[in-house]
């Protein structure tokens, strides 16, 4: 598309919903899901994702959501620190709209596109053109994208080609004139049930004998042979009063099975170039960790705000130990924000793309991951036992004793029991139930584990200048 | 009852269930509960509590469950470290039966009885006789007991008598010839819906003007004017496969409202003696914290065992960072056990009762409370992302793709996917869902908050010998 | 001075040394020090401070050291984030020259000047002109400055005017036509023995009755009535081999006694305006904390570099637990750097001066302070027991067994024992001896205590937006 | 010796000192030391060690110091938990006398004797008789013993026999009819300069090809070919006022070189039995870690006491953050004490010897090691900046300004400056100078590193019961 001739058009939420009504093979608790948009559980994930399309209609957000060129800002190749800061701000804003839950249907896909783009020079043709073409396809179609990276892995001490089950990593089982056929399974695939396109990327570095496992491609979600088995986690119905976030917001993860799926060549971005598998895996993760630390900000803000609010309604804002915990929470949140923004400011150009400072990104991700459970404890400490002993909304409205409940549970400063309980329910949703647990496990495992982040930090730190300074101090020069 | 004449008899589980079918006024989500034993949610709590009565039938446990005198060991006044160790072992064993959830229907009540017993000399007559009589009533009837201590408190910066709402703490509103009338509300009252008797204790120290609030008593749960509003927390139906603990085990907490409840004098144990209110509150908490650290042991054992098991099925037992986290978990669990047992060994006699070393009890409780969230993080780290992305049991059984799911998710050492997922579900139940959150909030708040434990630690530590040693080291003597 | 007419001239190190040979009243271990530059202990502090003047001669550093206007960059009023980044870079570079020890003779004084400058509008005339004049005096004379802020304080629970000893805070005891007379004492006054000018600032907020204590001024260090009692800490002679840093680098702190010292009016910057005492104290500390986090960077870099170097010479760089600790150290150091630089980038203008983001400055300071002891532990863990059992340099050179010592203590990769021991001595100097202890106590107490930083963090965090977001999430809007 | 015939006699301190005046080859800073008792630095270590002999004269301590049989209690084989508790109490008492510094001249040697004793059945004859005979020799002679275990190790990734330098571990270079000849070097050998006998033990498990390195023996310290090179660490002269502990108390560590040292057979306890080398190394360390956690108790007590005292003289005992830190310190200290005592209570018999619970011993050691730096930070935080800026004792006594110093630095409750400074000096000695650093490095490395303790914890924990419980909870049985 030539800018200026036919303007880009963002899809509406309805167009997005309609686009998901295809022949995709989705199962939930063993039952086939004929229309994900209408499913009682997956439909929540769909509507959560539709926020992305609704945001463009919000005049306060439009400049952030729509790039100068007219397409969704997610697709804008960052070429400066400022672009990265805006991308981060967009991810943060969308997650705030999502009530601390990332939307992800464009974030993760563009992370994959950026990673492929920066490797295009090494991949060469015809890969480079295919990548460019597919990028334009997604951008111009304003598509929702998922990324399947983590293989089921089998025995973790063995490389892909040495596994007892040769399908433990997704692999090419046939090369044909018109494309390839792949087999295997990926786990933890987020937003796949409500995406239009599914990226598949390798999950690790490969050796020569793993060449069949060095494969990357993208396919429509309704491609034959692809089965999405959605996790039932967080699938129970919830009342909005007691679960103010998770009643209406969720993501769905799938076990994603590739049962001899055919991929036409124009959708294949890596096939056998084992030397680049690790680079692609890492590059994607690096972009994606910047996305991650951007979308963690509303969560940490919510924890700080909820703790401040709980202290206020409990009348304990002046208590020394409460203030101590609040100061810790603020430090935790604002350190994450500063590292995120500073990583953008300290970007470097890689093949024309601004890449956030990967050392700082990994440090931010590590600090977030290592502190979230402590943050939960601090917030729970400030909130109090009502988090798990609260009466129900029905009790508050009870004709006989509702007024008494409201009065007995009233808080400081004339706050009624009903309002105080809403604060407790928010914190309970954030920290004590499945939503909190989901965030906690994501903190530890998503976008690379804590240990992976440590490895990245040590590898990306410029060791020699530090050693040289130490040697100079030791009188060894 | 004179031992040797009429032998004690423990109740059966059925007798216990029958005893709960009375006119108690219980509400769940605004609906009156006519029979708690048949209620879909509260019935789970009832059956969990019935474990106490079932254990006496287990020949492996009988010696632990039944005291030498023939009554339930919970009622045995500890007079030696050995008695305390056995009581701790009984609490631990019952909680193991309860799948890491404490049973509590005799633990907490006997903690209150012990506290009253040790204060009987100060309370004098007729209180002392009433306490003795009520103790025998509970013991001989093998009764289930709840304790309501925490008042709703209102403005926490004000004492009871200065509250805007005079009912923010339970208080005596009338003294009559045959008894007293009380009004107010207590929160966080555990096992009240399935207890026979409800203790009410003051929650803090009082001043002279708070005399009306210095009140302690015990009443049958079906006493007129008493309303129990059960919390809906953890009330959603759960499948046993995905929630192997919480599907069948729960406690119920209530907001407990005293709407001008009449208490006959023989059930009143404190009424106006404000000088003793704080002592009673503290003494109860001290006994109860020993109960608490005893019943935490199965939970920490389960976390260690689950982490070891997860490492095994994931094939990561030899990974250095996994071993590091396992060593931490073991240290956490075994330090708690050592402190608990050593606190019993270091008991002192108070009016004939062996009281565990309160300094060590509080340290144990504090260390448990401050470490549980870290333990969750460690276990989640070892387990992996499947904790929140697992497929459902229905998927495993699916005729079309169930076998593939089982194979793709198989673990190290030939462990099938189904088995690996059961481990994930256990850890998910323990750490990422409402049950984990319940345990986490209990860790921080139950039996006194983290801050209360710190205060107790500092007050119970013998400061002067330590200062004297420091002065001697400093050359100041 | 009009730029372009008479160029600014920086002083030489010799000129600086000569300037300290005056009638200042300095005592060391009870002995009067007639010439601080020749004193065996204080002379080390003097030569360390002289680094400031030597740096201007280093062509690699000159652009950093000398502002565009020709004077020392320290005196440049920052008016942009870039100015702050350069100031930070200068402080970092000087501290690197000082082998991780801050030079401070201009850093702290200009912090005081900046604080006074931003308060000049509130102070009004004649204060504003005096401040401007004194600033030019210091800048044009390229002077070394100390700041005495912390009073001896007496009973910390009482304000200045209520102290049993009325001199517990420095106070005005007489107002005369030509100036004021002050009395009292300040502690922890750094670089006073080798400064030209001594600032005195209030240490806390004051009330109306404390007006006599609301006093700020600056005087030459040889002003009559001023006594500087230098601390003997770190005063023992050290060999350069065993203490590669502290043998040649030190600061000197004094107990600074004002024995009815006369201050002419033109040097008085606050006198009785108690409403501004707290603002001045805080403003100074805020500027000074930015100095602090800038000068901590070489120390954390040295810890990282020393740990990397120790792992290398010990042959343990690949050990998993060593890598874990190294990753932690890198995160610690680079988080501090990122927060420092981002605080500069997020500056705001206050009366024309760029003030670093105080929330981030305080978070940086807190994170540094809370982590340094852990960093010491990590570095000691990696280094090994030789830190405290090393043989002496004389042993390495011994004709009989020196070669054996060298061989037996050789490290990985052919590193000789002598070299490995230099690394151990560096780490010992950094972490196990008085220099390490000095840095540790400075981390906890200098530029405001840990608790003061927490208070600042909570007060500077914009609470209302966070609370508003939490309320929105809770459905309370 | 037959008890009852000739009573055991403990040596006097003078006898001990005389016994050190032999032909031992000791160097300090390259200079030969002809009489260690008269050396300005090593003499301090000698006099510190002499405390062991002086304690028997203290009637308050005699029952603890002298076993029922009449010899020093250190030599008593523990056969019950009570014996272990008394041994622990003796070690604690001696360390208290040593002002928080362990005496060690019998502790460590008897740990080695106990380890050899429990392995005697596997070692068989003639080793068993030799071990028994040497034990009696030490016991009856009331001897001071050192243990050299840690080899210089060379390249840590290689076993002894594969080292580039074959002498990187002490080894047998010749087997003769009358004994063996050994070569190599050990590091970190404590109390060797002032011991009578020196044990040599292997430091790790060995393989068949390492047989020459599987050697254990004991020799008089003046054996020809043995060279002790004392570390200069903590060797500077100190004033008792400023360093109330370390001025008069120290240990000396040596690099211990075996230059073809002949060992007669009756002193050889292991020679080639490589299968037992690891067992001996481990068994010694296990006994020694119990010694270690016993001797850490006075140090943690001193930290608690010093912090309490500092809070008192500073007038900050009621400050909330101070109380928080004090509670942490108390928990730290008393957890260590409880684990230590409980490990003794949970002893098991190994070949007739009561062995403390090794899991608990290692947990205690780990918790101590991981917390000491935090404890230092807490104490420094409570104490204040005077730790490193204090004026000298000479200043306090100064005729001109001494009274002012005393008054200006006075503390709360009428404490004079001089007394407050003694508290600061104590804390400075304990935490900021070389003595504190010595304790810190010992915490991390002595008696096995932090990582070694983690490995021990995981290996000693009974994993299967925990896994079985988790499996049961998961429904997998």
Describe the model.
Four copies of one chain form a homotetramer. Helix content of chain A is 48%, strand content 13%. Chain A has helices at 13-19, 42-55, 62-65, 81-97, 107-123, 127-141, 274-314, 320-345, 358-383, 386-389, 393-396, 402-408, 417-431, 434-445, 450-460, 463-473, and strands at 26-28, 31-33, 145-148, 171-175, 179-190, 197-200, 215-220, 226-230, 253-264, 268-271, 348-350, 353-355. In chain A, the strands form three sheets. Chain A has a six-stranded mixed β-sheet, with no helix packed on it. Chain A is globular, with a radius of gyration of 24 Å. At the B-D interface, helix 7, helix 8, helix 9, helix 13 and helix 15 of B face helix 7, helix 8, helix 9, helix 13 and helix 15 of D.
Protein traits:
12 strands, 477 residues, homotetramer, 16 helices, alpha+beta, 6-stranded mixed β-sheet, 4-stranded mixed β-sheet, disordered N terminus
Measured distance between first and last alpha carbons of chain A: 60 Å
Strand content of chain A: 5-15%
Overall mean pLDDT of chain A: 96
Category from helices, strands and their pairing of chain A: alpha+beta
Number of helices of chain A: 16
Radius of gyration of chain A: 24 Å
Arrangement of strands in the largest sheet of chain A: 2-1-8-9-5-4
Oligomer: homotetramer
Strands, helices and their partners?
The structure is a homotetramer of 477-residue chains.
Chain A: H1 13-19, E1 26-28, E2 31-33, H2 42-55, H3 62-65, H4 81-97, H5 107-123, H6 127-141, E3 145-148, E4 171-175, E5 179-190, E6 197-200, E7 215-220, E8 226-230, E9 253-264, E10 268-271, H7 274-314, H8 320-345, E11 348-350, E12 353-355, H9 358-383, H10 386-389, H11 393-396, H12 402-408, H13 417-431, H14 434-445, H15 450-460, H16 463-473
Parallel strand pairs in A: 1-8, 3-6
Antiparallel strand pairs in A: 1-2, 4-5, 5-9, 6-7, 7-10, 8-9, 11-12
